[in-house]
Amino acid sequence: MSTNVQKFPSQFPIPAGPGLDPRFPARAGAPGSKAGPISIARPAHNVSSQISKVGLSEICLSYRIQSGERLLALDNINLQVRAGEFVCIVGPSGCGKSTLLHLIAGLQPQTSGQVLIDGKPVQGPGTDRILIFQDHGLFPWLTVGQNVEFGMKMKGIPKAEREEKTRYYLRLVHLAKFEKSYIHQLSGGMRQRVAIARALATEPDVLLMDEPFAALDAQTRDLLHDELERIWSESGRTIIFVTHNVREAVRLGDRVVLLTFRPGRVKSEFPVDLPRPRHLEDPTVARAAREILDELRDEINRSLEAEYEEGVKPHVKTPAEAGSRI
Ligand SMILES: Nc1ncnc2c1ncn2[C@@H]1O[C@H](COP(=O)(O)OP(=O)(O)OP(=O)(O)O)[C@@H](O)[C@H]1O
Ligand SMILES: [Mg+2]
Question: 3-class SS at 9?
């Protein structure tokens, strides 16, 4: 299937990258943010490099299911993400979005194809990439502060720097007062914010975010959109962000990638050529989101039809199709 690339009309050119866009200059601190400026490590970018930060080449992944058959979850995914790009991925439930992030994070191997970071094949997890899970994955036996510090400790960051960054990132997600609390003492939204602070604190080149704001109230989500956008523009991080909320994808992304219902394939790519900062309620954002939603709805309908069939009939691979790694 060929990828459908669509463009939203705009009087503005596509930005060259965060901090390089004169409409959206890098700032030391967002207005209204309680977190003061801190030096955020910038990943080493070779702007002129033609090598993508993240490259997915002919990725297929099949799972062995209980019946012993193989379920094709991802089929021939080709996607290039350039350094400093903010890419959002949308698609119906079960189309393989989380699986795709797991592959990039090196948490599981693909059945065939290649995942490349800076042109080099991913061999497993690395500190250059971090995944924020749907269910946040915090350690209940550690305090909020210790959770945020954890990744930095693993990276060997000295104690004084860890403590400074922990305080900074907790202020950023408005949890400074909860540094000594345990995870069970927090609400779901607060836990998610700790997970975000923990991931940001390790300052990875590539941030993989799996529906990180889905459980948050509207105000907190708006605030974190602003903060995430600010951090991204200042730090030059590459972000791959999975969401079910198409408006959120248009609000945040340089590009929105739409996956098909199982097996997940890249159906369309939508470069979002709208000025930043954007807001969820902007009419231009709503208009762009509607276009994507129309295509997404077709895929959601396919997924509902599959569910109403007599049991879900997975695409079963022939032995020749099936890879041998999983
Ligand atoms: N460990 C596993 N074993 C077998 N099948 C799996 C496994 N993990 C995921 N799957 C299947 O792979 C497909 C893709 O799952 P995935 O979690 O990546 O979807 P998703 O797009 O993230 O869905 P959602 O939007 O609901 O989070 C689904 O059909 C799911 O049942
Ligand atoms: Mg998922």
Answer: coil
